[in-house]
Amino acid sequence: MPELPEVEALRDFLTGHLVGREVATALPVAFHVLKTYDPPLTAVAGRTVTGVARHGKFLDLTLGGGQDPPLHLITHLARAGWLRWQEKLPAAPPRPGKGPLALRVTLAEPPPGSSSGEWPAGEGFDLTEAGTQKRLAVYVVRDPAEVPGIARLGPDPLADAFTVEALAAILDGERQQLKGVLRDQSTIAGIGNAYSDEILHVARMSPFKPAGNLTASETAALHEAIRTTLGEAIARSRGVAAGKLKAEKKSGLRVHGRTGEPCPVCGDTIREVSYRDSSLQYCPTCQTGGKPLADRRTSRFLK
Questions:
Q1: CA distance 48 to 247
Q2: What whole-number distance in Å separates Cα of residue 167 and Cα of residue 114?
Q3: Does the pLDDT value for residue 227 go beyond 80?
Q4: What 3-state DSSP class applies to 111?
Q5: Which residues are paired to 302 by β-bridges?
Q6: What is the pLDDT of residue 170?
Q7: Is the pLDDT of residue 42 over 90?
Q8: Can you tell me the distance from the alpha carbon of 151 to that of 106, in angstroms, rounded to the nearest whole number?
Q9: Residue 140, phi then psi, degrees to nearest 5
Q10: Per-position b or e across 132-152, b if 16+ CB within 10 A of its CB
Q11: Given the DSSP bridges, would you call strands 124-129 and 81-86 parallel, antiparallel or unpaired?
Q12: How far is CA 45 from CA 25, 40, 212, in A?
């Protein structure tokens, strides 16, 4: 699943490739992806991309229309979605089918007077989604706050306002375990399954530690782990082409997805707790005092 660092890298990539460009067409291929109908998707055609923003894991293209109020083309890539930049899209419109293509955005021809090769004709991007659980979502709205998922977002962990004190206020009285708190988008925006594992490994904390029980020093350590883990992931992704971001993410993970491999810090074997539709990874030596966690949702230390 694309998380904050990958969406931030896509935002940076698209800023350089889209701002100042006019949208020629936006064609839905899998109609379930479109979650809004007023304004219609056709309203983005002929508008110019004036900015690209990120809200948690949501990607937001601002589209200006002369004297008209701006519109926002917003995407949530969900678990298996991705954005694929295309330097030369097919001339024929895509046909609905069983493939991964969900939506195609084609840019207009280069404007008169632009230098040769500055803006290649036929550029654009595809939104794709693998697998059978189709959750990729596209919205056309006048205000990003009209998207329910954005309206519910908690603070961005990279914002200046996300201080140690702000995190302490979030955790105060919290009954969830740390893993759940970090993944809860209404509590902290943008962190998912992979980076919550990475953050807790850096902080040397059990994923099942009660969030409301952290001491002041533990809260400071968790805050530092959040900022450094996400910041380093963004730094690694900066300048990477959109098509290579998934591979870059995987190569930079230290514990997530590495069950059975040695911990890069202590050498202990990385273990896993599996759920119905996801799993987490952790290092017993670094995070749980050497004790493995029971592999079930209501996990407790094995005795």
A1: 31
A2: 49
A3: yes
A4: coil
A5: none
A6: 96
A7: yes
A8: 29
A9: -120, 115
A10: eebebbbbbbeebeebebbee
A11: antiparallel
A12: 5, 10, 49
Query: Residue 121: CB partners within 8 Å, gap ≥ 6?
Result: 109, 110
Residue range 131-151, pLDDT digits in tens: 777 899 999 999 999 999 999
Give residue-wise pLDDT tens across range 83-122: 999 988 888 888 887 789 999 999 997 655 555 444 455 7
- 120 in Cβ contact with 114 (< 8 Å): no
End-to-end CA distance of the chain: 34
- State the DSSP H helix or E strand holding residue 124, giving kind and residue range, or none if neither: strand 124-129
Q: What is the rounded CA–CA span in Å between residue 174 and residue 210?
A: 8
Residue 130, both tokens: 């693998």
> Cβ(29)–Cβ(220) under 8 Å?
no
Using CA atoms, how far apart are residues 10 and 24, in angstroms rounded to an integer?
21
C-alpha closest to that of 26 among 46, 10, 42: 42
- Write down the pLDDT at residue 300: 44
Beta-carbon neighbour count of residue 214 at 10 Å? 21
> pLDDT tens across 12-39, in order?
999 999 999 999 999 999 989 999 999 9
Both structure tokens of 260? 């059975």
Give the Cα-Cα-Cα angle 292, 181, 244 (nearest 5 degrees). Answer: 85
DSSP string, 237-259: HTT--GGGHHHHHHHH-SSTT-T
Tokens 């036929």 appear where? 122
Question: How far apart are alpha carbons 58 and 11 in whole angstroms?
Answer: 10
Letter for the amino acid at 5? P
Range name among 88-97, 118-127, 197-206 with the lowest pLDDT average: 118-127
